[in-house]
Amino acid sequence: MTTAHASWASLFSFGLLIAGCGDDLSPAQGGEAPGGSGLGAGVSGGADAGGSDEGGAVNTGGSAEGGSGAGGEPTPAVFQDTYPLTAQFPEGGSYDPQAGAFYVGSLLDGSVHRIDATTGHEEVLFAEDAAGTWWTLGMDVDVVRRRLWACAMNDADDPRTGHVWVFDLETGERIANHALGVAAKDASCTDVVLTSDGLGYVTDREQGNIYVVDVDDGPSLFTQNPDLEASFIGQNSVVVLPDESALLAILYSPSSLARIDLATGQVLTVEIDGKFSDLSFLAGADGMTYRDGSVYVAFTSVLIRVTPSFSDWSQATSEYEDVPSGMTDVLSTPGGLYLLNGQAIRFALGQEPDPFQLNRYTGGL
């Protein structure tokens, strides 16, 4: 680990780098929305607000192996138990059921990688060539519009702010680059989730803010609430409930789960009966996905399933299981849950990593 990377092990940088990343079958991924509205609507590609992307896109995208392009029927992937990754310190990821592909980011260089679920072939979708040291964090796939949204951070920004990147999955081109600093000073970008109308909702690690981003018009402040702040490290992963009534967001440490009403922006801390913590060193609630009525939360060495006691998610119960250390995200796929071994704590502390992998979860939760 170079001196530059080790210097990020400061407490402030640690709070940014242990970044939340969620992945769920949201309405934008083909999940159900109220009345089904908005799922077929097209949204035109926005201009890249961050400047030219010449030389940024590494491949040309197109239909994935084992899957069909926009408008076609998806071809089921043949899932493997383990996917070795060349992406370095992949903090967050998402799964595209239309193309049968995983996407992960990188804390080391801010690149975005695509992994074919059937073959395991990995390629770089995008590598940022703008000034600064970049890292990519949480992301989500818009299956209907064939887009990938990703959170990015750059240490050259002054003030330091997060960015939301949007990619065309058929071409590999970045079609939007929105700096969240226009919505709030020092805004960070830790995770993004999409709704059926094509909007992205973004969590801020350092402030109790959630932003809403339009691919064309950029970001604005959706809600601000002290219950979305934490004494150590704040918001991490975010998912949207299938009926689009609310978002669920996790706070890293002290770990908690919050419900954010999408109509009013009102924030409610969910009362959880059971374990919602990880006692290993510097661990907290990191990645999250929604599946079959529950959310699964990846801590560093624990996977926790949270199931609502009431439909409004005011109260919930939890079950947990120990998992191999180094987890940063959990992804839901037709082949089951996959745990992303991104080792963000080792990155923040400047330690050498073990091999990076996506591993199928075979436990009993």
Which key terms come to mind for this protein?
365 residues, mainly beta, Methylamine Dehydrogenase, Chain H, six-stranded mixed beta sheet, four-stranded antiparallel beta sheet, 3 helices, globular, disordered N terminus
Distance between the termini: 36 Å
Order of SSEs? HHEEEEEEEEEEEEEEEEEEEEEEEEEHE
- Work out the helicity level: under 10%
How much beta, percentage-wise? 35-45%
CATH homologous superfamily assignment: YVTN repeat-like/Quinoprotein amine dehydrogenase
Number of domains: 1
- Total number of β-strand segments? 26
Question: Roughly how many Å is the radius of gyration?
Answer: 18 Å
Which secondary-structure class do the elements indicate? mainly beta
Mean pLDDT metric: 84
Cα shape: globular
Topology:
Layout: H1 3-6, H2 11-17, E1 21-22, E2 82-85, E3 93-96, E4 101-104, E5 112-116, E6 122-126, E7 134-142, E8 147-154, E9 162-168, E10 174-179, E11 191-194, E12 200-203, E13 209-214, E14 218-224, E15 233-240, E16 246-253, E17 256-261, E18 267-269, E19 271-273, E20 287-291, E21 294-298, E22 302-308, E23 315-322, E24 327-333, E25 336-341, H3 344-348, E26 356-360
Parallel strand pairs: 1-20, 19-23
Antiparallel strand pairs: 2-26, 3-4, 4-5, 5-6, 7-8, 8-9, 9-10, 11-12, 12-13, 13-14, 15-16, 16-17, 17-18, 20-21, 21-22, 22-23, 24-25, 25-26
3D structure, described in words:
This protein has 365 residues and is mainly beta. The protein has a single domain, classed as Methylamine Dehydrogenase, Chain H, CATH 2.130.10. It is built from three helices and 26 strands. Strands 1-20-21-22-23-19 form a six-stranded mixed β-sheet, with no helix packed on it. Strands 2-26-25-24 form a four-stranded antiparallel β-sheet, with no helix packed on it. A four-stranded antiparallel β-sheet has the order 3-4-5-6, with no helix packed on it. A hairpin with a 5-residue loop joins strand 9 and strand 10. The longest helix has 7 residues, at 11-17. The radius of gyration is 18 Å and the shape is globular. Residues 1-12 and 32-70 have low confidence and may be disordered.
